[in-house]
Structure formats: structure tokens, C-alpha cells
Amino acid sequence: MISARPLAARATLRLAAWMAVAVTIMSLGAMGLQYRLVETRLMAAQKALLAADLDGFRALYDQRRIIAVRQAIEFRSTAASSDEVLVLLDRQGGVLAGPESGWPVAVAQKGGSFGAEPAEIIPESGTRWLAVSWDLPGGFSLLVARSLRPVDDTLAAMRRGMLGLLAAVLVAGGAVGWLAARSVMRRIGRVNDLADRVAEGALDARLPGARSDDEFGLLETHVHGMLDRIQNLNRATHRLSDTIAHELRTPLNRMLQKLARVEGQEDVTADLKAEMRQAIRVFDSLLDISRAEADQGSGGGLVPVDLSAVATEVWELYEPVAEDKGMLAEAAITPGLMVLGDRNLIAQMLSNLIDNAIKYCAAGDRLTLTLAEVEGRHLMRVADTGPGLPDEIKGEAFERFVRAERDRGTAGHGLGLALVRAIAARHGARLVLPATDRGLVLEIGWPKLQSSE
Amino acid sequence: MDERILIVEDDAETAAAVRAVVEGLGCSADHCDTLEAGIAAAVSGNYKVIVLDRMLPGGDGVEAMARIRAGGATALILILSALGRAANRVEGLEKGADDYLPKPFEPDELRARIRALLRRGTMQVLDNDLMAFGDLEIRVKARTVHVKRAHVAVSPKEFELITYFARHSGQLVTRMQLLENVWNLHFDPGTNVVDVHVGRLRRKLEEAGSTAIQTARGEGYIFAPLGAVG
After folding, report:
1. Which of A47, A159, A444, B69 has the fewest CB atoms within 10 Å of its CB?
2. How many CB atoms sit inside 10 A of residue A161's CB?
3. ipTM of this predicted structure
4. Three-state SS string across A405-447, please?
5. How far is CA A64 from the centre of its chain?
6. Do the Cβ atoms of B11 and A245 come within 8 Å?
7. Which residues contact A168 (CB under 8 A, 6 or more apart)?
8. Residues A416/A352, Cβ–Cβ less than 8 Å
9. Cβ of A149 under 8 Å from any chain B Cβ?
């Protein structure tokens, strides 16, 4: 509830990032394929040009041997194209035709006849060259090399273009992803906000406006349907408990009015009145339990309550009772601990616990109530050194009407702890029965109220 | 007391019981058995106290209180209802009821409550520092109690208790009233915890020589420092 906004934003960001990365990877793949294709085509073109050159030289050699080749090389050299290097060596390795620098070191002289294969790629003066060399009959060597600079320049330009394009795709993908995710998140956020308001107790909260004709509209319709049902059930529960109260208490009231007119049998009427009071207590507890359970999890009706003050008040109410019974009663209550709660329910719960402890303990037993902040919660602890819970009911002590066999003689209906549990749950408090050597220890961890006021 | 009291109650037997209590206090009672009639009567008649039921033909008395007040009625409202759980009582008081008594009720309890309301209507605001009842004195600002000029040490709660008694001196004060007004608790704690507190205060006063607090038959106590019970 508190971190709902950052949560939604995080999901939006994540979706946008995934979208951007996915789009970028796909375009990277497409561009890579294209790049490969262009590279292959350009190389093939260069190879074709080289092959054409070689065909020319072979024709010349076939007609007029070395002389013609040498003349052709010299003629071509004067044309001074930087795209081509042609070298012809004599049998001692002297340059017959070609540039001053002579035969490039990187190319091995090898035998064979005219042909474009095997061509090799050599680096020379900062450029890559596609080179082929032969040994011609008579110890002459011929090297034909074509510069790959045009190819490399084209590919470099293409790479730069691709990089720019990828950056643009990444940004565009992110932006589109963000927009798409945000619109989705906004619609989920509407439903979340509604759930928050319902959790805070506004069971009649609904989303305004018409439902859209899509999955989100359907979700909203479903949520509304569930809320309507919960609200109706809740209303029915409240109506039912009011009706039960009315139908039970009205006849009891008539009985009590008639009892008031009975004279001369004070003991009997006092007993009857006490029985009626007990019966009402049982019904009230049952109704309180079901009401607290029905309201469980909804913050509705809860207000900031000074837990320390309530604990102190209830303690002061019962302390003399415990002392009169000869018990050692001690309380250590940290002042000013606030919770979101219902003062009356908290007082009722604590009164139940302390009253129970006093009921089951004997003179000399110790009763302690502590309230302190422990590990981010307000920990309320009621401990006594009385008989504790018998093993037979340990597991189900918080169920309605569960009582130990040994307590049949003691007044009570086994609703006290059930009400304690329901009220704890109503407040989102954790109820535990820690193991203890002697007596009964009960701990309730209350959620702290966020604001310190 | 010849005050007029309005009873809005649909159960005839209960209405008769309330009427008996009201007339026993020397007041005259009018009875309505529907909410609409009750509101009309409350607004037009000059009543001191209205005893109002909740689950009436026509609606909930608690919800009708705003209409009664809006109509200009200045009567004090006592809700007398079968909706008697603590939550119901707190709701009724928060919505403006002056008192809330759950059914079934003891006639004595109702009598004590109506009497307290009638008195509240006439009582001047007690802002004087000293409340003196013969040789028993309560100093409100200093929060001290003196019997025959001697200081009686009381706890803060006991002081609130004796002040509440003093404000209702001479009247029956029930345990339920004490629990509601002194401890602000609206549920039945089962055991009579209040008795222990009153007993302690009473012993302290008796040790100092005052028998101001007396147990009344059945339901509560009477603070009668001057011996006058009424």
C-alpha cells in the first residue's frame, strides 16, 4: 500500500527496458545480415575485377610473353591508379616493372599459372589489398594486387550508420515501451487504488466511468462484482447480528421486568439475573467475534489509539483485583506507543486476558503486563505463573467454546481467547503463545502506527 | 420534579416498564411507538429527556437523533436498545446520545440514568474549586480529598471516582455508570472489578471518619456524605 507507486513505476521501467532491448536486438540481427551481404558482394566484385585483370595479363603473356606483360605494367603504372599495384621481378629479384618499393614483404612468391585463386588479403601501408602472385616460366615473378580501400570505406560508413540507427532504435523502443507500459500500468493502478481504498474500509468504493471493452474492463467488472458480493455479505452479517441481538434481548428484557416485580425471593431472582447476564455476555462475545472476523483486514473504523494509555487504564482497573487475591502484579508499560485501532476492542481484549489470568491464578502467583517496542512492533506480553494451558487444549485454545476438562468447575464459556484472537486479527496483530516453564505467557505483536503523532 | 419525558419504544411491555420508572420519578411520560411519531413529538413537545429505542418501525433511533436535534429539540437523549454490545454503545454515544442503556435493563439502572440526566439538565456547571459536603471536602484543582481537615491520600483513579460520586451526590450510582464514566469502558467485564475500587476508596474514607459511600440495594452505590439519601 505504501510502496504502490514506486512499484508500478518499477514495472513500467522494466517493461520499457525489455521492449527497447528486444527491438534493438532484432534490428541488430537484421542489420548484421545486411552488412554481411554487402561485404560479400563487394569482395566478390573486387575479386571479379582482379580476375579480369589477370585474364588480360594472361592473354598478353600468351601472345608476346614477358615483354608484353612488362609494357602493360608500365603503361598501367603511368595511369597511376592508387587502387592497383603491379610488380614484375626478374630471375635475380630485380624489379622489371612496377613501383620503386618492389615486392611487398607480406606476399610469398609462389608458383602456378594465371588465375584469381588463391588470392590473399595483405595489409600494406594502412590499406588492405587483395593480392595474387605467380612464378612465370623463366624465373619471373608477377604480383597483381587490388586495393580493398573502397570496400573498407563503404563498410565503415555502413557500420557508422548502423550504430547511429541502433541508438535511435534503442531510444525509440524505450519510448514506445514506456508509453505502452505506462498505459497498461495506469489501468492496473486504477484497480490497485480501488483495492487500497477498499482495504482502508471504504467497501462501497467503485471505479468511476464506463468499463472499456477489453481485458481491463473485464477485470474491473470482475472486481466490482466481488466487491458488491462482499458488501452484501457484510451488510447481511451486520443485519443478522442486529436481529439476533434484538430477538434475544427483547424477551430477556420482558423477563427482567417481570423479575423486578417478584418479591420475597431475592436469592432466586439474583441468581436468575446473574444467569441472564452471563447468557448475554456469551451472545455478545459471539457477535463481537464474528464482527471482528468480518472486519478483519479492513482498516475501516480504526483510528490512532494510544496503546500504552489503554493498557495502563485496563491495568489500573484490574491491578487491585489481583492484589486483593494475593497475587504479585507488575506492569512495565512504555508510554506513548500508538497503533491504528479500536480503543474499545483493545480494552476488551486486554480485560479478557487479565481477567482470565486472575481467574486461574492463586495467591502468590505473579502476573505481569509488559508493553514495549520490540523489533519494529509494539509487543504486548501478559504472563502469569498460574496453572497455564493444559496440554490437551494447547493447539486449539483460541477456538470458540474450547475449555479444559479441569476448568469445568470455573465459570466461563471458552470464548475469551477466541475473542482475543479475533480482536488481534482485526488489528493485524500477531498472537503467539511462547513456550514457558510455568503458567501462561501470551504475546501480541501490534503493527506500529507509521506517523509518530 | 415535574418534567416531561418522551418514550419512543415499540415494545409495549418495555414501554410500560419505562413509564413506571418515569412516573416513579414524579415525571409525566408521553409514549410513541414509531420513529416518525417520536421525531414529530420530540420536535414539537418541550421534553427534558427522550428515552429512544433503536430498532423501531421506521428506522434506527440513533440515526434519528440528528433530525431531532435539527428540529430544535434540546432534550437529553437516552438510548435504550437491544443493540447493547460495546461497539453499539460507543457508536450511539459518538453520534450524540447523552446516555446509552442496553436492554435488558434493571428498572433501578434506568431510574439512576434518567435521574442523572434530569439533574444534568438543571445543574450549573461545576467550576468552583471546592466541593464541600459537611466535613468531607474535595479540592478539584489540587486533586485532594480532606475529611475533617485531614488529608486522605487517594490515587488519581480514586479521585476521579469520588468526584463522579460527588457530582451525583444523594443518587444511586450503578456499577455500569461508574465503568462507563470513570473508566470510559463500555463492555461488561464479567467480574465486578468496580467493587474493588469503590471498596478501597470507601475504606480510606472510613478510616478518616467518613461513611459517605454506601452500598445501595443490588445495583450500586450512593454517595450520601450528609446522611441524606434521595
Report:
1. A159
2. 12
3. 0.86
4. HHHHHCCCCCCHHHHHHHHHHHCCCEEECCCCCCCEEEEEEEE
5. 83
6. no
7. none
8. yes
9. no
